[in-house]
Amino acid sequence: MTFSHDPVEEVARALAASGLLLRGGFSLGEDEAAPAGLSGAPARSILLIGQAGPAPWPHFQRWRERQARDIANPLDSWSREVIGAVAKEFGARAVSPSDRPYLPFQQWAMRAEGLKPSPLGILMHPTYGLWHAYRGALLFENGLGLAEPHAAIHLCDTCVAKPCLKSCPVDAYSGQGFAHEICLGHVRGPHGATCRTAGCLDRNACPYGTNYRYPADVQAFHMAAFAGL
Questions:
Q1: Disulfide-capable partner of 97 in 13, 46, 54, 105 (CB 3.0 to 4.6 Å)?
Q2: Residue 172 exposure: Cα atoms within 13 Å on the Cβ side
């Protein structure tokens, strides 16, 4: 693919039409293990794609209105469609966090933006806080001249109170990790109405990135997907 301008800017512009963001990227050295690109040759550059706040939501909702109501994993399907179209435009291979076998998206994201995990496992962003997500990646078989990202400020290191570990009524997050079954049982149960309608209480307790917090209907959508409701 020959770009008329800066390839990163061109990809970012194409994604913006659907409310998605280019979330950084990096180049792979010849001695690094690399996933296959579009032709099957090793990828040499990876661009991460995601969102900050609820920007994609109106685009997703308009798309969803045209789909069968019982479509499985609608947000994943929308993301694949949008990112796949951008990949086709720029001669890249599109991949998703839900692809099997799983690709190391968490490690890619940490490398692409220099982020570290919060106590909840979600990567902490210095601007977006916990209100962001990764929806896919573009794999290019040619180098894009990407500089290695610098480490970002990790806000969790400056947070003494850690309200994200004190707000869940069933203490789903602890030093032992995420108690998935306990959380799931609570969200599905008679006392989980607030979580179902307003989202994870621990996540909402985080004081950072609140300008990007997902609205209640977006959080309810994600919680329903998590709980299988």
A1: 105
A2: 21
